[in-house]
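Hello Y.,

Per our agreement to keep a running log of every chain we model this quarter, I'm adding this entry. I've kept the format consistent with earlier entries: sequence first, then predicted structure.
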Amino acid sequence: MDIKDLKSLIKMVTETDITEFELEAAEEKIRIVRGSQQIVQYQAPQPVIAMAQPAPPAAAAPAPAAAAPVAPAAAPAAAGKEIASPIVGTFYRAPAPDAAPYVEVGQVVEKGQVLCIVEAMKLMNEIEAEFRCKIVQICKENAQPVEFGDPLFIVEPM
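Predicted structure for the entry above:
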């Protein structure tokens, strides 16, 4: 399966009420689960799996490093809710390098308002607020790489 087909499947799942999708072909298996945690799994023929196996330890290695900066922010996190990255990519606070950031600390945002962009494979994915909230902390710097599940913002629901 090529990237175009995979993107089409992901788009189909995100634009519908489907919460879980699984497809098995001769040597490929694709599973997409949608909800509070979005999971996309793809298993290809054995040689590709052998190359993909080193990636999970690399993804696991940044998690402890990411946990260290979050630990000092335990006080705001206790009073707020974390908005995490739904995908792996690059975090951008503004729509363009010379534009103002979408949000600032202390700002109240409405449901559906764009908080940031996470660029993945040259696609700009707008991350929107799922509820009305106040921005307590911005956890990432502009143009910083993010992993799936990395905290982007700490917010206080309103």
